[in-house]
Design a protein that fits this description.
Layout: H1 6-18, E1 20-22, E2 29-31, H2 36-54, H3 60-74, E3 85-89, E4 96-99, E5 103-107, H4 108-113, H5 117-132, H6 135-156, H7 158-175, H8 180-196, H9 204-218, H10 233-247, H11 258-265, E6 269-270, E7 278-280, E8 283-286, E9 291-294, E10 300-303, E11 308-311, E12 317-323, H12 329-339, E13 347-351, E14 354-364, E15 370-380, E16 383-392, H13 393-408, E17 411-412, H14 416-419, E18 424-430, E19 435-436, H15 437-443, H16 450-456, E20 464-465, E21 470-476
Parallel strand pairs: 3-5
Antiparallel strand pairs: 1-2, 4-5, 6-18, 7-8, 8-9, 9-17, 10-11, 11-12, 12-16, 13-14, 14-15, 15-16, 18-21, 19-20
Length: about 475
């Protein structure tokens, strides 16, 4: 007979009997193994990474506006002692998300597609609902509980011990994604907060209609992460429509804030900001930092907030460009080699008239495979650029020369047109006469297709508009 360890049994009993607290927002019992102070600590730690990697949108007034709405909703929500934080992220993707501890993030991409303040309140309220519902803490607690279960199983069965490492590795991804019940609950809480904060909650279902259209446009690929685990928008629309009917509230005269909202977002950058770098075929140009680099032809390249990355079709060779925190090229190379346990000999050189240091390196992995590459660090202006190319032994043998050629192409951006490029921005215009949105587009050509104008206005191309209706459109440069 196998004797379970008393400590393990005591721990399991403690989880079972003392961790199911009643949530003040939902009235439901929850398995919570994470203290509120730990939630706040984790949220603060992650907030530093998110703001540095994704970047905050550089508009103090608009950021303050998002905060104003967030605090208005938080004021009628539970958990008032959290360090509630509301941030506007400089990302064109339609997204919003929350971290444990009261950290809420809204992208400029989703703001561009909303039509009024009440719709923004619906999005923010939903994310507040995830925090007050303690959905993140609950999911992490379930993961911890499952890990304890795996530990007990390992005492009973050698087979369980063998698979527990594999199973445990996947539990984090499995449990830390909000389930659809959590999403529905966040919708319901968001609706309640809108109602209590005197917003017209009838605008909330229109957000779900918008999300359904975005999903359809994405065609099943590139769907915004905010939608990946959510119930179908039509289901969400129906649930909130029923809640509106059952609430007994009279929403007439409640805050919608269309005109003020459109005033606020006028001038906001729309889509990717070319000032932060853009591609023309495989040529990458960065107007603000005034550099360019030609990536290997036919490779998949992407401009990310913290790096420019290019990968070959076989995905066995990579070139990435980042900005080093060090202020000297040799120091950057030595730090890279030492930090990764690599040996290499830094060599001083010049690339297109710029001082640089480079080093070739190779390493063997535990499975016997090899990795080889070259790091090049260039001093240009006030920045230290790190161009790191590497691949498997086979990949580097086939593609190393392409990487080296790309590294050697780094240089000053001198193209006047590229240096002067301006981002697309939102603005508004009034219809001159009664007609369709398509007629408006013909009279007010935009920098994006008419279908995009229809999407950001939550209309169809054939929607009939009265004279002097205010419509969002997109122009190049300052409106």
């Amino acid at each position: 007979m196998i004797n379970l360890r008393p400590a393990a049994i005591s721990l399991l009993m403690a989880f079972s009997f003392s961790s199911c607290a009643v949530n003040s927002a939902t009235g439901e019992r929850q398995l919570i193994l994470i203290s509120e102070s730990r939630e706040i600590e984790m949220g603060r730690e992650a907030d530093v990474s998110i703001t540095s990697q994704m970047g905050l949108y550089d508009d103090a007034d608009l950021a303050a506006y998002v905060e104003e709405i967030g605090f208005r909703l938080q004021g009628v929500a539970e958990r008032p002692n959290l360090p509630w934080t509301f941030r506007l992220i400089d990302d064109p993707i339609i997204n919003a998300f929350a971290l444990p501890g009261g950290f809420i993030y809204i992208t400029r991409g989703i703001m561009a597609h909303l039509n009024n303040e009440a719709q923004l309140a619906a999005v923010v309220g939903h994310e507040i609902g995830h925090v007050t519902g303690r959905h993140g803490a609950e999911q992490m607690s379930r993961a911890q509980f499952a890990q304890v279960g795996l530990g007990l199983g390992s005492l009973i069965s050698p087979t369980a011990a063998q698979i527990s490492g594999v199973a445990g590795a996947g539990l984090g991804l499995l449990f830390l994604r909000y389930g659809r019940d959590d999403e529905r609950q966040a919708d319901a809480l968001g609706f309640r907060y809108m109602d209590n904060a005197s917003y017209d909650a009838r605008e909330m279902p229109d957000v779900f209609t918008l999300l359904g259209r975005v999903t359809a446009v994405a065609g099943g690929s590139g769907t915004p992460s905010w939608l990946s685990t959510h119930p179908e928008p039509a289901d969400r629309y129906e649930r909130i429509a029923q809640a509106i009917a059952a609430s007994g509230s009279n929403f007439d005269g409640r805050d919608v804030g269309r005109e003020s909202y459109l005033d606020r977002i006028t001038g906001m950058v729309f889509g990717p900001n070319p000032r932060h770098g853009f591609f023309e075929d495989n040529l990458f140009m960065h107007p603000d930092m005034e550099f360019q680099i030609t990536m290997p032809p036919d490779w998949a390249s992407q401009n990310l907030p913290q790096a420019v990355v290019s990968v070959n079709a076989d995905e066995n060779t990579v070139l990435q460009l980042t900005i080093s925190q060090a202020t000297a090229s040799r120091a950057t190379v030595m730090e890279f080699l030492a930090g990764n346990g690599l040996t290499g000999r830094p060599e001083e050189t010049t690339i297109n008239g710029l001082s640089a240091v480079q080093a070739d390196f190779a390493a063997s992995a535990q499975d016997g495979s090899t990795i080889a590459g070259r790091i090049v660090v260039v001093q240009y202006g006030s920045n230290t650029f790190q161009l790191l190319g590497y691949g498997t032994g086979v990949g580097w043998a086939a593609n190393g020369s392409l990487v080296v050629t790309a590294q050697q192409s780094f240089g000053r951006l001198t193209d006047a047109e590229a240096l002067a490029i301006e981002p697309l921005r939102l603005t508004t215009a009034l219809t001159r006469r009664t007609g369709t949105l398509g007629d408006f587009y013909d009279a007010n050509p935009a920098e994006v297709p008419v279908e995009t104008i229809a999407l950001i206005n939550q209309m169809d191309v054939g929607t009939v508009l009265r004279s002097r209706t205010r419509i969002k459109t997109v122009v190049r440069g300052t409106p």
